[in-house]
Write a structure and sequence with these properties.
The chain is mostly beta strands and 320 residues long. It has no helices and 27 strands. The strands form six sheets. The protein has a seven-stranded antiparallel sheet, with no helix packed on it.
Length: 320
């Protein structure tokens, strides 16, 4: 499958192909990937988290699809340039959109059989948004304003939002962001500086003061971060030489390993906990083909990179 953008979840990967058509591949009950299929829509951008997938259509309007249902894409009149997605601890999907004036909007779906909420304005101006859920708290969204990181958050799910608050501009300005949570801790925020250095800061506990920025590597063009099932963080980076590298913490708040070469060049990477105890990383290769690699547990050898497609196995009951 050739793609110009992918968005991943534990059980599915959505991809925008060269002709803007959305395709999806899903993991079946045996843990193996099925076959790619057409998702029945085209898009400029997609965002995928939990049970919902959001898209910006060719006309710039936002719509959403609920996985596991026969419902069609639900359309809005909102025009957007960016999307981000997350979900609350109970699985409630949440979409964030940035309009052409760099104002942020949020909507959520409280239950599968209930409608999406009205879009809630979160003001701005910001871009490059990422979102997550604060452990034992509500939603948080981060964005960039003239290279400076801004964020808004809720003390509890769907409560009133705090005002936009700055978090600094390491590296002389920030070009992209990533966020995840720390097991038994708070949030971990990653920022790629204009100097090509990747920085991070974190909270020891939810809502605790932020630690100071620390560098994690230089010569980086893009990155992805994920939690290991065992609790530590894992970082994947595409260097300015296009090669993919990886480093990790063996436990929450632990020391970072050195960088390891993953023997592949890529335009983009995304990562998440694997089907068992390890990690799975996805990449859009230099030929635009979607590939993946995985490890079964922390410290194990990584598999070779293989094209993401139907996985034949003698254990499978289905066949294509």
């Amino acid at each position: 499958m050739k793609a110009r953008q992918i968005s991943i979840g534990p059980h599915s990967v959505y991809a925008i192909g060269p002709n803007d058509q959305i395709h999806v591949i899903e993991r079946t009950a045996d843990g193996l990937w099925g076959a790619w299929r057409d998702a029945g829509a085209a898009a400029k951008r997609i965002a995928h988290a939990g049970p919902a997938v959001g898209r910006i259509g060719p006309d710039g309007r936002v719509s959403a699809f609920q996985r596991g249902s026969d419902l069609p894409w639900f359309p809005w009149s909102l025009l957007a340039a960016e999307l981000a997605a997350t979900h609350l601890r109970d699985g409630t999907p949440v979409l964030f959109a940035v309009d052409d004036d760099r104002r942020v909007w949020a909507t959520w779906k409280p239950a599968p059989v209930k409608p999406w909420s009205d879009w809630q304005p979160l003001d701005g101006p910001v871009g490059g948004i990422v979102a997550d859920v604060i452990p034992d708290g509500g939603l948080v969204v981060f964005g960039l304003r003239d290279g400076t990181i801004q964020h808004r958050w809720q003390d509890r799910p769907l409560a009133a939002w705090k005002i936009w608050t700055p978090l600094g501009e390491p590296g002389g300005g920030v070009t992209s962001l990533g966020v995840t949570t720390i097991s038994h801790g708070g949030l971990a925020l990653f920022a790629l500086g204009a100097d090509g250095v990747l920085y991070h800061r974190w909270q020891d506990l939810p809502f605790a003061p932020w630690r100071e920025w620390e560098p994690l590597g230089e010569g980086i063009r893009s990155f992805a971060v994920s939690r290991f099932p065992a609790g530590g963080l894992s970082l994947f980076a595409v260097g300015t030489d296009d090669f993919v590298r990886h480093r990790y913490q063996s436990k929450p708040f632990g020391e970072w390993s050195g960088w390891a070469d993953m023997r592949s060049r890529a335009k983009h990477v995304a990562a998440q906990p694997g089907y068992a105890d390890g990690l799975e990383v996805f990449a859009i290769g230099m030929d635009d083909e979607v590939r993946h690699a995985w490890c079964d547990r922390l410290g194990d050898e990584w598999s070779n990179w293989v094209v993401l497609d139907y996985e034949p196995s003698s254990l499978r009951l289905d066949s294509v």
